[in-house]
């Protein structure tokens, strides 16, 4: 049984009000423009809703994963694409937080609390998506430096981030055990943005290719030891997948709320459609699925906070919550009938946004594979 503390209720309310007053009014505009919502990020920074996972020691918010999940549900309720900037940063800073040295944290984290900045988790490549071990970006050690060459795709904040965490192979012959993670600050010659993606949904988030040509970073920018990159990436995703799950719950809850309010005012056959049992049962099934997903998110996040990261639980929360978001948004659109299909109503955006939650941070097929592997082990 989870009982929220007063502090958790307070920050959830702050995020809820922020979504209502600052995100929802501009969500359609950013969806249409497909631009990163800088004014929203600046406002979030100003009221302490940014840098959620940066420890208080570095003047970040230092939230635990459970409280972070509460905030992410509210932000994504407002707009999944806007949440993308928050979630993308949290994902990208996690490798530094879990495997960086004190010297690396002291060097890179302060900039993120001085002003609102972006970070990017650069793992995926054109031929290394679900199979993250197939990375072909190379890192050659020459003297006191590594020289990185390759390209990354579908990277949140790719090419515009102040800090890219780049996963590269330092020893091709060792496969998965030859992957290594590097901290690449903005302005490093040779790192540039490639194609910016034009997406179906999640449009307020910036996703682009990252090109790396003779990118030189000092040995001091290597995260962990050579060969530890794959484990750093997997440990990162174990703690960030519940955040994606929380966002999926936010999208699903928004769809249910919109459908409830529409069903109460839409009159057909002489009464509001909410009085037809066909609609009531649809709504009941959906809200049950949303509540079950939220319970899983809370359990997965609490498990991480207890220090016992559970890959199976994180994967389950991500898979169940995002499948729920997809199913629920489609069904809620159905309740809106023809209006649901039109852009002036909120449902079509929610359907477009929900889809990415089944794909990013590991497709739901990968989540099922993780669960099956652990189940059968
Ligand atoms: N924690 C620590 N170590 C782990 C681990 C975990 N969760 N999972 C695996 N490992 C270790 C294993 O123990 C093993 O090490 P040993 O040999 O020393 O025992 C090693 O890693 C290899 O493990 P597997 O054999 O299980 O690896 P695999 O190649 O079969 O596949 C996978 C693993 C789960 C499929 C993995 O490749 C994966 O998660 N793929 C999906 C990638 C992904 O989520 N990408 C999303 C990118 S980020 C994004 O989308 C956001 C954005 O910006 C848009």
Query: What is the count of structural domains?
Result: 3
Low-confidence stretches: none
CATH topology call of the largest domain: Butyryl-CoA Dehydrogenase, subunit A, domain 3
Ligand roster:
acetoacetyl-coenzyme A
What's the helix count? 10
Helix vs. strand class: alpha+beta
Superfamily (CATH H level) name of the largest domain:
Butyryl-CoA Dehydrogenase, subunit A, domain 3
Any guess at the CATH architecture of the largest domain? Up-down Bundle
Instruction: Give the SSE string.
Output: HHHHHEEEEEEEEHEEHHHH
What average pLDDT do the residues reach?
A: 97
Measured between the Cα atoms of the first and last residue, the distance is 30 Å
